[in-house]
């Protein structure tokens, strides 16, 4: 971080860093939008990183992807929708059409 500060950088940009499918190469296949990816250190790694950034007076720009969720067994929200259908508390987070128009 001191090197970035010396370069005159004011903020660090993070590409998607929420919990995604294990081994994701891009992070846009989110499985838990409430957790930092374990692949990059999870909550503990985030705390260490944040402390280092703040220690240099830098800010953080975080790219979140609220409209990208993985259709995966690793996604508890998706699994709940599959189990409970429209009664799932997560149903509103997914675009699911039970009667799609022909040709759509």
How does this structure look, described?
The chain is α+β, with helices and mostly antiparallel strands and 104 residues long. It has one domain. 28% of the residues lie in helices and 17% in strands. Strands 1-4 form a two-stranded parallel sheet. Strands 2-3 form a two-stranded antiparallel sheet. The N and C termini lie far apart (50 Å). The model has no long low-confidence stretch (mean pLDDT 89).
Per-chain topology:
Layout: H1 2-7, E1 11-14, E2 18-20, E3 30-36, H2 42-55, E4 59-62, H3 76-84
Parallel strand pairs: 1-4
Antiparallel strand pairs: 2-3
Q: Kindly state the mean pLDDT as a whole number? A: 89
CA gyration radius, whole angstroms = 18 Å
* Basic shape: elongated
Strand content: 15-25%
Please give the share of residues in helix. 25-40%
Number of H/I helices: 3
Low-confidence parts: none
The rounded distance between the terminal residues' Cα atoms is 50 Å
Strand pairing plus helix content: what structural class? alpha+beta
For this structure, the quaternary state is single chain
Q: What string, H for helix and E for strand, traces the elements in order?
A: HEEEHEH
Descriptive labels:
single chain, 104 residues, alpha+beta, two-stranded parallel sheet, two-stranded antiparallel ribbon, 3 helices, 17% strand
Compose a concise summary of this entry:
With 104 residues, this protein is α+β, with helices and mostly antiparallel strands. It has helices at 2-7, 42-55, 76-84; strands at residues 11-14, 18-20, 30-36, 59-62.
